[in-house]
Amino acid sequence: MLVESHVLEYPGGYTRSVGPIVGRFLTGLRDAEIVGARASDGRVIVPPLEYDPTTAEPIGEFVDVGPGGAVTAWTWVAEPRPTKSPLDDPFAFALVLLDGADTPMLHAVDVDGPDAMSVGMRVEPRWRAERVGSIRDIAAFVPEGSAGPTPESPAPTTEEREPVTGIVSPVRLEYEINAGVAQTKYLRGLAEGKVIGQRAKDSDQVYVPPRGTDPTTGVLTEIDVEVADSGTVTTFCVVNVPGLSELAPEIPYVCAQILLDGGNTPWFGLVQGIEADDVHMGMRVKAVWADELEASAASIKWFEPTGEADAPYESYREYA
Amino acid sequence: MRDVAVIAFAQSLVGHDREHNEVELISPVVQAAVSQSGIARHDIGFTVSGSCDYLSGGPFTFVQGLDAVGAWPPIKESHVEMDAAWALYEAWVAIQVGDVDSALIYGFGKSSTTDVHEVFSLQNDPYYVAPLWPSTIDMAALQACAALHAGVTTERDIAEFSAACHRAARSNPHAIAAADVSADEVLAAPMTHPPLRDADIAPITDGAVAVVIAAAAVARSVCDRPAWIRGIEHRIEPQALGVRDLTASASTRAAAEAAGVGDAPVEVAEIHAQFGHEGPLLARALGLGADTVVNPSGGPLGANPLMSAGLIRIGEVAERIWDGGVGRGVAHATQGPCLQQNLVCVLEGEGS
Questions:
Q1: Does residue A82 sit in the same domain as residue A141?
Q2: What is the domain partition of chain B in residue ranges?
Q3: Phi/psi at A196 (nearest 5 deg)?
Q4: A122/A37 same-domain check
Q5: A305 is in which domain, residue-wise?
Q6: Both A72 and A165 in a single domain?
Q7: Gap between the Cα atoms of B347 and A165, Å rounded
Q8: How is residue A147 annotated by DSSP?
Q9: Are A90 and A215 contained in the same domain?
Q10: Each residue of A208-233: pLDDT tens digit?
């Protein structure tokens, strides 16, 4: 089966507004301070939540906590995730109950190995020098007494002294997508200059490209049907917007739904070789194949008019 | 309340499906469940699915699932971005409201397309937790550590549960992590994610599930021994780990009480325990006694298709009621880090 790598990533990362409560906490981190917030029952919640998790009342005053605290739970990360985990070398994730807090917070603990970890152990934050107002301004917690002096952030500009109002969250996820049985046949067909559709056993409806099932019944389409690389324009639009894709031709160009002969689902393609103004419904067109065929949609460059008489409206009205 | 029963259940699971896409995975399962239900496809009043677009890495990919269920002429349909057990809850509500008399529920997902333990890190708080990228295993291990330290379970309890699940999975043809393993053998293995060991962590599983439920008149007309839903409830806890008691699943306990789990003996419980420590924790929260058989299918430690595994628990209990072997059982489903949200469903045979 054909497998394609797929990356889910938003360039520059997602930007999020943090609001006054989270913003106060992150502003504190930038200044190498940790604050919690008092809930209606008097508990000090760290990191602060916008609302009391029990009563949904707005939270009360901010309270300085830490910097020292105790581990209430931990696990060992033997294989850190490059570019994602807080530390490059193996580390512990832990829930740390800071002095003065009533709820523990999640963070990394930097020690040599799991044998150095225990519930109840005392830790303190090791701060980054370059602090920006992020949970990662704490590089990690370390055993109490070993963090050393807090590095001074470079002299902040006036703007950098303003309260933190947002964060940037880079997200990158990697996938391997499997095309499936039907689409693999279709794509491999394109590499051989063929257009392969499929139909279900109990139906004469040929789906092209096939997606694996007859969508009207949900039944698998197990019968392959080669359809023609020529067909009829059922509907179209003229694109006058430049730069929609690197592959897009010069504007104006025409995108069309094309009912391939032998198929029962209109197929999306470009129409070239004719002035955009002259493209019309019912026009007969034929695929122009790329010089180098491959198992991808790029094998068909576009469609051009065949010069045949237009197809009668009745022959494609169901698809327009 | 209208009496509603589970009348059909089909599943298809594989560790890493390199052949099919999601649509091809769902189609045979839906066909099987509909056929088993005895109700014609277009007589089923409502269709609802559970899945997660993050598993396939594209927005609105759940819509593709519709190609596998026969949506022409147009059908009444819905979707939840949750385990399909919650889709069943929505279907049950639709039947209670009286809009429809039957519903097809399906769940699907391929966990093998990516590092799911990393992907689900994104369900955490985006300001305080997600930037640290703790995996779902890391989060579970923290809960296991807290539970052990509090003394609500022991390393041996966890190992006994995990070993029992892997052994039970041997009699489940759909399981992918079946093994004749003892608690001692589990305990002898290293803690790969302390205090969890590999045997305590559910296997990566691709799969789909489909279930049909129906109101009494329909259910009785097509099913000899319907599995009646006598109680179904779900509850959620705050997201922040720090403000929750990780050593007890308060939301499971609340859902179980509301669903009436303790009103009569529970012969079988299928629980959505994806990590070994969740077995003892959930058994406690559900109030299960020593006489309840827990996860006779092997549970998620035997096979864990994300977004389907919760609904499969309901199907597994229903199947045991249909064949007359069980009179009353409980199914449990969970979502979110460290058992954040929990659904409990009480199923009974006729006359129980």
A1: yes
A2: 4-114+204-222, 116-202+228-348
A3: -105, 120
A4: yes
A5: 230-320
A6: yes
A7: 50
A8: S
A9: no
A10: 999 999 999 999 999 999 999 999 99
Residue identified by tokens 């990566």 is: B204
* N-terminal to C-terminal alpha carbon distance within chain A: 33
Which residues sit opposite B335 in a β-bridge?
B341
Residue numbers of B between 7 and 26 with CB closer than 8 Å to A: 17-24
CB pair distance less than 8 Å for B27 and A26: no
User: Could you tell me which residues come within 8 angstroms of residue B309 by beta carbon, excluding any fewer than 6 positions away?
Assistant: B83, B202, B205, B272, B274, B300, B303, B333
pLDDT tens series, chain B, 352 aa: 999 999 999 999 988 988 999 999 999 999 999 999 999 999 999 999 999 999 988 888 888 899 999 999 999 999 999 999 999 999 999 999 988 999 999 999 999 999 999 999 999 999 999 999 999 999 999 999 999 999 999 999 999 999 999 999 999 999 999 999 999 999 999 999 999 999 999 999 999 999 999 999 999 999 999 999 999 999 999 999 999 999 999 999 999 999 999 999 999 999 999 999 999 999 999 999 999 999 999 999 999 999 999 999 999 999 999 999 999 999 999 999 999 999 999 999 986 4
| ipTM of the prediction greater than 0.90, yes or no | yes
In a mutagenesis test of the A interface, which of B20, B196, B198 is the best target, namely the one with the most A β-carbons within 10 Å? B20
Q: How many other C-beta atoms are found inside a 10 Å radius of the C-beta of residue A216?
A: 15
Contact B246 A73 (CB under 8 A): yes
**Does residue A67 share a domain with residue A206?**
no
- Do A26 and A76 share a structural domain? yes
Phi, psi of B323 (to 5 degrees): -80, 5
The model's pTM is 0.95
Which CATH topology does B4-114+204-222 take? Peroxisomal Thiolase; Chain A, domain 1 (3.40.47)
- CB-CB neighbors (< 8 A) of B28 in chain A: 220
Put simply, whether B134 touches A (Cβ < 8 Å) is yes
Looking at the structure of chain A, the number of domains it has is 3
Of B153, B174, B195, B189, the closest CA to residue B279 belongs to B153
Q: Would you state the pLDDT for residue B352?
A: 47
Nearest beta carbon to residue B243 from set A16, A103, A167: A103
Q: How confident is the model at residue A157 (pLDDT cuts 50, 70, 90)?
A: low
Q: Closest approach of chain B CAs to the CA of A275, in angstroms? A: 36
Quick one: closest CA in B to A44, which residue?
B243
* A113 shares a domain with A40: yes
From the CA of A72, how many Å to the nearest CA of chain B? 7
Q: Measured between CB atoms, which of B24, B66, B145 is closest to A180?
A: B24
> Nearest to residue B268, comparing CAs of B326, B339, B324, B197?
B326
CA–CA min distance A227, chain B (Å): 21
Query: pLDDT tens digits for A35-68?
Result: 999 998 899 999 999 998 888 888 889 999 999 9
Count Cα neighbours of A166 within 13 Å in the Cβ-side half-sphere: 7
A69 with A145, same domain: the answer is yes
Listed in sequence order, the DSSP H helices in B102-208 are 116-119, 136-150, 155-168, 183-188
Which chain B residue shows the shortest CA-CA distance from A39? B243
Domain B116-202+228-348 has CATH 3.40.47.10: yes
